[in-house]
Design brief:
heterodimer, A: about 425 residues, mainly alpha, elongated, B: about 300 residues, alpha/beta, seven-stranded mixed β-sheet, four-stranded antiparallel β-sheet, 12 helices, about 40% helix
Amino acid sequence: MSETTEKVRKTLARRYRSEKRFKAFGIGAIGIGLMALVLLFTDIIGKGHSAFFEHEIQLPITFDAEVLDVSDPRDEEQLNYGNYQGVIRNALAERFPTVEGRQDTRALNQLVSTGAGYALRDMLREEPALLGQTRTLWLLADDDVDLFLKANEKQREDSRLNAKQQEWVAELEASGETHMVFNRSLFSYGDSREPEQAGILGAILGSLFTMIVTLVLSFPVGVAAAIYLEEFAPKNKFTDFIEVNINNLAAVPSIIFGLLGLAVIIGLFGLPRSVPLVGGIVLTLMTLPTIIISSRAAIKAVPPSIRQAAMGLGASKMQVVLHHVLPLALPGMLTGAIIGMAQALGETAPLLMIGMVAFIVDLPAGPLDAATVLPVQIYLWADSPEQSFEALASAAIMVLLAFLITMNTLAVVLRKRLERRW
Amino acid sequence: METARQLDKPFLGTNDAAKDKAINERDAMTQDTPYPDQTVGKPFVDNPKMCLRDVDVFYADNQAIHGVSLDIGKNEVVSLIGPSGCGKSTFLRCLNRMNDTIDICRVKGNLHLESQDLYDPKLDVVELRARVGMVFQKPNPFPKSIYDNVAYGPRIHGLANKKYDLDEIVENSLRKAGLWEEVKDRLHASGTGLSGGQQQRLCIARTIAVSPEVVLMDEPCSALDPIATAKIEELISELSESYTIAIVTHSMQQAARVSHRTAYFHLGRLVEMNDTETVFTKPEHDLTEAYITGRFG
């Protein structure tokens, strides 16, 4: 055996040991990451899953023209001012005839959500013949009733319902006059003071309009900037300066962009507050560096041989870029754009500054309507004193995470699908 | 191929002492042998296609080409040979101004394609590159279909107005490049799916599709196996009937086989240029002789 072999053999054991150590560290790091993820998901899903369902109470409702004060259901004004709470109150009084006294009657009436009246109005509008008839209907329960019904024995002791209310609800539950249904209002309404009527559709639409504005502004601008810097700009001190500052822009805390939006876009240009248009412009500033940097990387990754081939054939600079560089760099650019969008979707701080934190019930119909966005909605709900909003906030987080995961998956799939080999 | 290997690796199989001696000899040779004040041999021809005089090329402050003057005749195959880093590729890239793409590169001298000054500021480089095409060292088909690869040049220059004309140009170019029979059934398959040799012939087809007057080839066979190389060489001989060709090569066999005249470059200077046969059988300059006999390279 030669001297070298002996020396090598001595070091081998040590080398393998350090290799194993390194592997263990890596696995440990991934383990910690995965654990954090599992904890996060268990917590959020544990808290939020119940918000996807809500309870309803069955009551025989009489559409009494006198109580409703509606003589012609086709008259929109009469319909809107109808006393729907009255018919619900009557129905409840009929169901629990023993309840007496002002205080108890009020407590009884609180079992049904105030939103149930709107459901009755909508029914009457759909079917005017209902006037004067009696129907057995499922009405949305109040959030405290909902929480009580979802809770276990021990949690019920802490319920916000008083003893009598608990008794009534238990009676309804026992006789099968309550049931749980999918929480449609969560996906069909905007924000509300009443948790059982609060939905995230307003926030989703707000996020959607904001994202559309951001994408429409940041993708073309970012790609154009990247192409110019990579393909056309002369390499000098000035372009170096620009490059450094694009990287600086990526490191600016996002709330600063919010302040800028407030001072310049709202203050100077006079755009309205709380609207997705301004939110989109602010988020564009934040997303631009991500898109520029990833687009430049994608352009750089296009092999120079392709450029030379096209130039050797007499393609002009613009033709080289449009016909060859851009198609090859596009998957990378799109990936960068999607990741930038995902970042923007989860951004809260700058939007607080431009007033997208307002309590907005109406669904926005366009980027110029006041709106809020998903992360801000979560922030608002997490801040609310009502217990039911906690579950709603977690449910909204789940929806937001679902969007983010979808977008990131899309980025990965796109990259895999469009990746070209040369 | 045996001789080629010996030429490429002259020290193969010799012991260390002999190797050292050879290296010393080589160093002495490159240091002591003076460059000729003027290129020896016959660098000029009557009625040239390209007339190049006193060409200097600088990379920033570094001079890569020193006063090279030579002619390229009509329908002639000129090969440029020399050791690595001698400037032959740089020189070739001046002929269709591919060096423009390198910011720090400057070119001086008189370069003419017939009566056209190549470095005339008024000349559109796009027009020049349509007249002087180029084939690169590594096959670089576009990641598009075979058809689109060949049709790209005619399309951007507007050479064919109708689909029928374009089809004809594509077929003719592929035929001239000897690729038609192999790919006629899969014209719409990706060009990158072909073998290396086929890719290079596709690149040649793509180049000749715009009917250039001159075709520049920068080591077109260096990435190919001997069989593919043989096909390309055969092709070069055929193409020389209709095109003027300048080819940079590391293989002296290749230069000897395909070219009419050969230019030997050394450290940025054109040492010798003559008929290929003369260069390889009776080189006038010591440096040329040293190179072709494999004493360095």
